[in-house]
Amino acid sequence: MARAVWIIAALAALAGCSENNTLPDNPYAPGVSRNGETVDGMTVGHRLAAAGEYELALDAFSRAAIDQGLTPEIMTAMGSANLGLGRLNQAEKLLRDALKAEDGRPETWNNLGVVLMEKGEMAEASQMFTRAYALDNGESDSIRDNLRLSLAKLDKSVYDDTVEQEFKVVRQGGGSYLIRQIP
After folding, report:
1. pLDDT tens per residue across span 57-83
2. How far apart are CA 55 and CA 72, in angstroms?
3. Global pTM value
4. How far apart are CA 108 and CA 139, in angstroms?
């Protein structure tokens, strides 16, 4: 009896490995399609970053760089993924390189501002947010909020080491980040 149960379990496991598992209620992952189209590495990377999987997103952006070259868009995406991982120096270098390569998008300027603010460089962060806000024509709420916060911190020139403030970097849509003060 135990042998029959074992055989049935083995056959059920093998049935799940067959290549024609196209039923919508199939619990198994689909097999590799040799004739299918591959998904762009940038698309995969942005989806992973939106899910908070920054390390995997960085890998996807690196694969995209192999296919497309190290474009400003890829450097911005890699810088944003490094920002999500807390690697501020790497993020800063990639975002600055992306801005050198082309005039830059508002998201790139904003994310560089977030990096600089995280590093405590308020004056330069404020300049980055101002440029991002101008390029965006004031349409992005997150960029406006980042600019307001940086200007407020810049105006507060007195350092009080007894008051500790904590901030949280929050990912917004489109690869943009927002700085929020933790109450």
Report:
1. 999 999 999 989 999 999 999 999 999
2. 19
3. 0.66
4. 15
Q: Which two tokens stand for residue 169?
A: 């970097």
d(CA 52, CA 85): 9
Q: How many CB atoms lie within 10 A of CB 171?
A: 18
Question: Using alpha carbons only, what angle is made at residue 51 by residues 142 and 145, rounded to the nearest 5 degrees?
Answer: 10
CATH of 40-156+165-182, one of 3.40.980.10, 3.40.50.1860, 3.40.50.2300, 1.25.40.10: 1.25.40.10
Tens digits of per-residue pLDDT, 101-125? 887 789 999 999 999 999 989 899 9
Spatial contact of 128 and 109, defined as CB atoms under 8 Å apart: yes
Pick from 109, 71, 70, 73: which is nearest to 92 by CA?
109
Tokens of 10: 């083995």
Q: Residue 144 and residue 150: Cα distance in Å, rounded?
A: 10
167's enclosing H/E stretch is strand 166-171
Give me the residue spans of the domains in the chain: 40-156+165-182
Q: How far apart are CA 161 and CA 88, in angstroms?
A: 23
